[in-house]
């Protein structure tokens, strides 16, 4: 008897199978692209992936497919719409989606993927809840900002805050003299955004992009953005802590270089994105967070296929999950 012929798969089914990412295909957070800023587009999911539709009078509607599995963070400006299916795909691929304000200046909300492990969240929580450990990490953060050769052991936070204020002020004065722009004062006022000078506009725009990247790295590690060590009382306290490590190197010099720009916000985002390729910021963020939370050990991101939910034990710390422990009873 001849077996019935197998029905060939439909085109849409074959496309979905070919484009569906496997665990082995997903990049580590340190290897991911930095961020994608989307402006006045419609984002939706089709049979082959997530795409952005751009409509203009000159070219009509154009479709651009997004590399969801390689993106760490997506910034959505007002005027951008996204479907639930597209958001689901971003979540499955570990991409943080942030709703930003006009010009990418503010972060209104974020949709973060489910963390694969709580290893770093547990370390962060234990350190945050212990005043001695929290102070040591805060001191280490200030030491990273000050540079090599600056010891902060035994220095109280009040003095460290004063040292940080002097450092930033001196950095502003140095760059102001370098670019011959006279006296500079940092100002951020969303209510009078359009009246601010190009340096402040560029700095706010670049900092928001930096916050998005840091936020994506923190959540990808499984940490809580709300539990900061220097900052406190905000859902992005740790984001501000980590972002402050890089501003003097990345966003502040960039902003001053755009002092004569006619569109400093857009130029800041484009230039910042180009610099990220040079500085390889995401691997640095991941390494810095791990070293701050556990300075004596180097960790590799575990293989997601090997991760199971453990069971807490007051003596052993953790016992394997996915196991029937009833057989061990007498």
Would you mind describing this structure in some detail?
By secondary structure, the protein is of the alpha/beta class. The chain folds into two domains: 26-111, Ribosomal Protein L15, Chain: K, domain 2; 119-293, CRISPR-associated endonuclease Cas1, C-terminal domain (Four Helix Bundle (Hemerythrin (Met), subunit A)), CATH 1.20.120.920. It is 41% helix and 14% strand. It has helices at residues 11-19, 84-92, 119-129, 131-146, 157-179, 198-221, 237-243, 251-257, 264-279, 281-293, and strands at residues 33-38, 42-45, 50-56, 60-65, 71-76, 81-82, 96-100, 107-111, 311-313, 317-319. A four-stranded mixed sheet has the order 1-5-7-8. Helix 4 runs parallel beside helix 5. The radius of gyration is 23 Å and the shape is flat. Mean pLDDT is 79; it is low at 21-27 and 301-307.
List descriptors.
330 residues, alpha/beta, Ribosomal Protein L15, Chain: K, domain 2, Four Helix Bundle (Hemerythrin (Met), subunit A), 2 domains, four-stranded mixed β-sheet, 10 helices, flat
List strands and helices in order, with pairings.
Blueprint: H1 11-19, E1 33-38, E2 42-45, E3 50-56, E4 60-65, E5 71-76, E6 81-82, H2 84-92, E7 96-100, E8 107-111, H3 119-129, H4 131-146, H5 157-179, H6 198-221, H7 237-243, H8 251-257, H9 264-279, H10 281-293, E9 311-313, E10 317-319
Parallel strand pairs: 1-5, 2-6, 5-7
Antiparallel strand pairs: 2-3, 3-4, 7-8, 9-10
